[in-house]
Amino acid sequence: MPAPALRSTLDAFFDAYYRRRPVNATFIGVHGGDGRLPDHSEEGLAASQAEMEDLRRRFRGLPKESASPVEALDRDLAEGFLEIELWERRAPHGPRGNPCVWTGEAVFGVIALLLRPFAPLEERVDAAVARLAAIPAFLEQGRVQVRSAPAAWIERAARECTAAAALFGRGIETFIADEDVTAHGVDPGRLRAAAAGAGAAFARFRDHLMTEIRPGGEAAYACGEAALELLMRCGHGVTLRASEVRRLAEARAEAAEAALRERAAEAGFADWRAALASLGAHHPTAARYYARYQEVWDAARRAVEEHRLVTWPDYPIRFVPRPRWTREAAPSLYFLAYRAPAAFDRVPVVDYLVAPVEPEMPVDEQARLLRAANDAAIALNHVIHHAGLGHHVQNWWAYRAPSRIGRIAAVDCASRIAMFCGGTMAEGWACYAVDLMEEIGFLSPLQRVAQAHTRLRIALRAAADVALHTGAWTLEQAADAYASRGGMDAGAARGEALKNSLHPGTAMMYLLGVDRIHALRREEAARAGRAFDLRAFHDRLLACGSIPVARAADLLAAGS
Asked: Residue 443: left (phi > 0), alpha (psi -120 to 50), or beta?
């Protein structure tokens, strides 16, 4: 049982978190604010800042010697979260300067309610109507707050506005038809009217973005070395300097490039780019497309259990096409095929929303989608990294963790996970999961090439994260590194660099997480000797929840 003062302070922390972040709360499965959007007015931001400063003082005033390892962890993670949020409230990367904060919260506040059947349809639509009605005032707050932003952020937010207008027009009409809302007691006219008002507000916000916001210079993309190291220290739990992370990333990139050449040669290719280009030829037929995901999932689970890699829970998932009402807007939004299930909602089956390949599509469009959903993409990315041993299994364990923060930190929200501190475990484990499947021989020769390429991209992400946010690289230089060294096409390379700029410290999560998990495994194996049990180690690690991998070592050592 936590010490009373610590428990009451944590209670106050979570109360403030859910109250101030109602869209995050919906995604997490806390539904008291489902009809609201955040208050990012000047008064709202000031009140939020004052509340966070008060919580920080309360945490700092608590006695530390009486806390258990899990209690100490939650106290430290909560303090770190507050430090990051207080920085972001002042920084251009937060609501005072980032237009994507506004578009993301507004559009996904509604999507969060309509996409998952956590409650009867009529209840979810009622909340969606309330949020749709709140969007005009919310985006008006954004017009007041955001007066200058980097050009690429403006462009992205404008695309999201266009997507939102389509979603709340043609998309809502499709939703009304496909969900047969009248049969559930829903008034379609009420939903249409609220959606139309929200769509008009997005159109006005887009005009504001394109005509009234002053584009910032290249320096505006960078958060600065001090801020980046604050994020690393308070979020990832590491004491490394930014320069040390960049050196680590460069070393890992060189190793990945060597492995790429080796794996390509093993697969019969003289050049790794040619090997990757050949992947598109290995894909399921249109008739077998949806079934192929489940076939690979079943085979992966059998292999995990045969090799005793981890205790795989009974956590059903099904691969279904993206709902029709989302399809026009999804490519321009942070719309994930696998969105971490809500920690506190218990839906019987989790839907994995794959890109639709339908008979009525033009043949060339079907062919393009099938090439993208090749065998390597389905196995490595969709099934292992996301829907199976990676995120899906890790989420099940996290939602039962003793750490209250570890239960919710890695839930996907409007534009990122619920708490920055969950990233190294969530992304580190998902990357490590593919490493494990390669270890046991599950991957084909071409899939091993793709996995070596993924390791290169992970390293380049961390290098770009540091170089961009310390001012060593411009956005264009980061994109060029992804294209020239990572083999990405120009559009994907620029998109990756743009994500780096929007969310400092995020791209390094993958490398820091997977690197530390491998190190923990080596340390535990050396300590236990012949008694080391890989499945037991993985189960204990996952039981820590979505916490910084750097902090998991403390819990493992304490036997928690």
From this structure: beta
> pTM score > 0.70 for this model?
yes
CA-based nearest residue to 453, from 248, 251, 262, 244: 262
Closest by CA position to 469, among listed 291, 221, 299: 221
Contacts for 425 with CB less than 8 Å, ≥ 6 apart: 394, 398, 410, 513, 544, 545, 546, 547, 548, 549, 552
Q: State the Cα–Cα distance between residues 416 and 124, nearest whole angstrom.
A: 22
CA 387 to chain centre: 14
Please say whether the beta carbons of 99 and 146 come within 8 A: yes
Instruction: Report the phi/psi class of residue 403: left, alpha or beta, with left for phi > 0 and alpha for psi in -120 to 50.
Output: beta
291-300: Cβ within 8 A, 24+ apart = 292/378, 293/319, 293/352, 293/354, 293/378, 293/382, 293/383, 293/387, 294/318, 294/319, 296/378, 296/379, 296/383, 297/383, 297/387, 297/388, 299/442, 300/379, 300/383, 300/384, 300/388, 300/389, 300/437, 300/442
Question: Which residue has tokens 């829907």?
Answer: 387
* CA nearest neighbour of 324 among 189, 196, 192, 178: 178
Integer Cα distance of 82 and 442 in angstroms: 42
Q: pLDDT tens digits, residue range 50-85?
A: 999 999 999 999 987 667 889 999 999 999 999 999
Neighbouring C-beta atoms of residue 366, cutoff 10 Å: 18
Please enumerate in sequence order all residues whose Cβ is within 8 A of that of 390, keeping only pairs 6 or more positions apart, or say none: 384, 429, 430, 431, 433, 434
What is the gyration radius of the CA atoms in the chain, in angstroms? 23
Instruction: Identify the helix (H) or strand (E) that includes residue 472.
Output: none
Percent of the chain exceeding pLDDT 90 equals 93
Helix (H) or strand (E) holding 318: strand 317-321
